[in-house]
Amino acid sequence: MQRTVPSLPLAPSVKVKLLHAGFQLATDLTDMSPLQLCKAAGISQEEAVEVLQMLRCDTQSHQERAATESITALDLLHKEQAQGSIVTFSSRLDDVLGGGVPVGKTTEICGAPGIGKTQLCMQLAVDVQIPVCFGGLGGKALYIDTEGSFVVQRVADMAEAAVKHCTLLAEDTEQKQALEELTVEKVLSSFFLVRCHDYVELLAEVYLLPDFLAEHPEVRLVIIDSIAFPFRHDFEDLSQRTRLLNGLAQQLIQIATQHSVAVVLSNHMTTRLLNGQSKLVPSLGESWGHTATQRLILHWEGSKRLASLYKSPSQMEATIQYQITVQGFRDAPDKLRPTVELCAVSSLSGNHSKRPRMEDQS
Amino acid sequence: VVLREGICPGLTEDFINALHSEDIKTVEDFVSCNPEELAQKCSLSYKALVAVRRVLLAQYTAFPVSGADLYQELLSSTAILSTGSPSLDKLLDSGLYTGEITELTGSPGSGKTQVCFSVAVNISHQLKQSVFYIDTKGGMCVNRLLQMLQTRTSNMEEQMEALQKIRVFRAFDVFSLLACLQHLRFNGLQQASVGGGSVKAVMVDSVSAVLSSMLGGKQNEGMSLLMQVAGELKMIAKDFNIAVLVTNHVTQDGNGCLKAGLGLSWSHVPRTRVLLQRVEIPGVLSSSLRTATLTKSSRQPCHLVEDFDLCNLSEERNSVTGKRKLESS
């Protein structure tokens, strides 16, 4: 495979010297020894060895090799259908998201303070552990906490509610067997919690994530709550912030695709003044909005909590109402039916019973 | 190009060593020297020098082509690919032209990826040609492609055949993207056309995701990488008669107006640029209506606006267009 010298991932100063010496294609360099290269290009011995090592096919970086391999859309379709999604325990939200939070993509949850972002993140961390026979993924979760808003007692409450729910649903022997293993203790112990105090720690954690996921292949969900907090205060150079965030986003989507995990990020809201009017928009800037694959905005309307799907490659935009109960993140009660059924009826095997959706009148 | 023995008869190792002593290492250095002076300095025969020079010039020069030949070649090789949406085709002067780069920009959620999907589905199903889709953001969702195909035909075999013709590449950083583009340029595209069914479109969604983290600050490689990506895309478009479609993000300038990302240098690269925007209808939280504005074109007057609906890209919005244009202007 031919590569031009300027497109190789080498230090810019080394590349300039190589180009000066007249090397244009990677094939010009392959049959040279380090000493020859040293003399010809005027670079140091270590740099010459590095260049030649990089060119040897077996050390070609994994990402670059993957980039040249293609897959037809048909094969990708089968792969996509095999990958599951993580339910949110709110069947309306699952419908809007097309089954739940998708694996292999990044989902961003934006909302004002107190709307329920951390609640939803904790609910997802519990839901990913639901066994496969109940329609879940049976995997573990990695929770990267930057704000310090993670509370274990709340997760214990949610885990208990989830286990109770599964107990109600258990029908055949396989499900009953899986249920025996599913206890609150097991749910809490299948959780990896990392606390990052500033953006440097967060960047380091994401850098180390591929190795961590290679060691723990059962992790199916990575949550960063929140990604806005370390970047919002004490950052003087805004253009550097944009660059760091873009680089971070690309690393996260690469991790999501390569290791088949769902990445969930939570973001804050900020006020934008336009023509004398103020509007609440997701923070971290305009270019950050492009980086997540899916964007979910949680907002208030009077005393109702609404969730809107703002950006998605496969689902239509929609808004639904939800509520936070003792058991966790749930659908808001239907106004049409006086008896409130908190999703106990909906089966988790992916065929959600289609209840009449209430269109929000704004 | 480095001078090496064997690239032309007469270039032996002694010859090259003698030239090296005069600091002549590349073909360019050699042909720009005067052979008489060189013969005196290097103690090489004048005849040999002139012979080698003639061969090298013949091998490495670019030859001029007359305008008429160029025009004939263009007429016979360019194709116009319909995007599947009559409003967009009107904007683009009947579709995407092969041999050119077309760019789509817009805010998040404005529909860039959806339009790319629609174009890919149209080319693979309607025109029965292959499409290469380079995904840098993880936005490729084949279920959506299948949905779009299902609205066009209910024949399962046709749908699967169309999906067979779309190849997806994944590159998440700029060096992987360059590796992918160079692989396509040197091997991939020829292999694809040998296998039956030519490749008519290459899409990169999006180009700004991999480049924006390399530009600015104290980094001095960003512009070089941007220009390399541009060069690869242009060579692919021209040499293989392919329509290249790229997507870009938007940023806000000082006054709060939207402008396409990646700066002024990138703005010269695509031949045609289209800006997609949401239509704000008061009272409705979210609608699937969008407007497309032509911001750069060598064929149509700029600032033409067309409306379209993301849900029904193949439908023409005739009746509402007139009213919308009045409202937006």
From TrEMBL, chain A:
SUPFAM superfamilies: P-loop containing nucleoside triphosphate hydrolases. Its main location: cytoplasm. Pfam families: Rad51. GO terms for molecular function: ATP binding; ATP-dependent DNA damage sensor activity; crossover junction DNA endonuclease activity; four-way junction DNA binding. It is found in: Cytoplasm, Perinuclear region; Mitochondrion; Nucleus. Keywords: ATP-binding, Cytoplasm, DNA damage, DNA recombination, DNA repair, DNA-binding, Mitochondrion, Nucleotide-binding, Nucleus, Phosphoprotein. GO terms for biological process: meiotic DNA recombinase assembly; reciprocal meiotic recombination. Residues 82-269 form the RecA family profile domain. InterPro entries: DNA_recomb/repair_RecA-like, HR_Repair_Mediator, P-loop_NTPase, Rad51_C, RecA_ATP-bd. CDD domains: Rad51C (cd19492). The keyword RNA-binding does not apply. Belongs to the RecA family. RAD51 subfamily. PANTHER family: DNA REPAIR PROTEIN RAD51 HOMOLOG 3, DNA REPAIR PROTEIN RAD51 HOMOLOG 3 RAD51C. This is DNA repair protein RAD51 homolog 3.
Automatic annotation (TrEMBL), chain B:
It is found in: Nucleus. Pfam families: Rad51 (PF08423), RAD51D_N (PF21794). It comes from the Eukaryota. Keywords: ATP-binding, DNA damage, DNA recombination, DNA repair, DNA-binding, Nucleotide-binding, Nucleus. The keyword DNA damage applies. GO terms for molecular function: ATP binding; ATP-dependent DNA damage sensor activity; four-way junction DNA binding; single-stranded DNA binding. Gene3D superfamilies: P-loop containing nucleotide triphosphate hydrolases (3.40.50.300). Coiled coil: none annotated. Belongs to the RecA family. RAD51 subfamily. Part of the BCDX2 complex consisting of RAD51B, RAD51C, RAD51D and XRCC2; the complex has a ring-like structure arranged into a flat disc around a central channel. In the absence of DNA, the BCDX2 subcomplex XRCC2:RAD51D formed a multimeric ring structure; in the presence of single-stranded DNA it formed a filamentous structure with the ssDNA. Interacts with SWSAP1 and ZSWIM7; involved in homologous recombination repair. Interacts with BLM; required for stimulation of BLM activity by the BCDX2 subcomplex XRCC2:RAD51D. This is DNA repair protein RAD51 homolog 4.
